[in-house]
Amino acid sequence: MTSETDRRTRPITVGCVVLLVVVLLLAGAAFLMSVAVRGFFDRPAQPDHEVVDKGAGLTRYRLQGAVRDGVLTEKEIAHAAGDARWGSARDASAVRITVAYPTSGDGESCYRFTLARPLTDRPLADPVRLARCPADLGGPAT
Question: Model pTM greater than 0.70?
Answer without folding.
Answer: no
